[in-house]
Amino acid sequence: MNHPFPVQQSIHQRHSVRSYTGQPLSPAELNQLKSYSQSLVNPFGVPVRFHFLEHQTAAEGEKLGTYGVIKGASAFVAATIPPKPLALEALGYSLEALLLYATSLGLGSCWLGGTFDRSGFADAIHLVEAELLPVISPLGHPRDKRSPGDKIARWLARSDQRLPWDRLFFDQTFSQPLTEARAGRYATALALLRLAPSAANRQPWRVLKLGQTFHFYEQQSMKEGRQGVDIQKVDLGIAACHFGLCLEEQQIAGSFICATDGQAEAPPHTYYRFSWQARE
Ligand SMILES: Cc1cc2nc3c(=O)[nH]c(=O)nc-3n(C[C@H](O)[C@H](O)[C@H](O)COP(=O)(O)O)c2cc1C
After folding, report:
1. In terms of C-beta density within 10 A (0-12 exposed, 13-18 middle, 19 or more buried), how is residue 7 classed?
2. How confident is the model at residue 158 (pLDDT cuts 50, 70, 90)?
3. Which of 68, 99, 169, 209 keeps 20 to 30 A from 32, CA to CA?
4. Which of 76, 198, 202 to mutate to test the pocket of ligand 1 (most atoms within 8 A of CB)?
């Protein structure tokens, strides 16, 4: 599949941006984002709805709140889902694809699952009762210099670091790490998965390779949040997006499937979620 943006380059360029210039998105930028969002499908088969908010469109003109975490953002995108199995993973996949596309346009973004005024945003997008609003992201032109708050947030989450390969990827069993050499043609996609953003940078993804199938597990380390949301399922969807889009760009054919389980004894607090299977 041809993507309208360079996937690997955008993954390398993306990072959380919390300081913006205040310059509004141009009508062309907003149109590009909206039209790409309408073209998005995810492998989990659950619809994800995107709501674009320019600052002035917040309920009764009030500023949309992020508890001071985000400075100078001119617009936001909120993503909503029905309360269904795999909806959080679908949201992670689709919103990350949109934010990578925004990166390719030179725009900044930042996943926010905790530090935003959920009820203010819910009012602004006229959230219907049956839907969940787990996350939002600002969209805008990044400032050259990070604000002190941005620097502190990055330092607290150790945002520039990722766990080593041998803590994330496994070969046949969870007792045997998958080396880059053994990953073969999948090494680039796994390296890009490793760069995925995650809530509090916990990196809950664990991937087990069995033959040409990759089983994705969630190592749960956070309690459920509001609306009973396990935000780490969103992280798993983001990881699937990096892995899946990279393989599509490399023209390595396969698809995500939900097996009944990952066929391996998993470590404590580690739960099977879904798999990616190569097309023979
Ligand atoms: C699902 C999700 C929720 C997040 N929620 C917040 C948040 O509430 N506040 C915040 O400042 N950053 C939040 N982040 C950003 C992470 O802290 C950040 O992605 C991580 O530290 C890695 O840094 P990077 O995005 O620059 O690579 C969230 C990220 C994800 C994926």
Report:
1. buried
2. very high
3. 68
4. 198
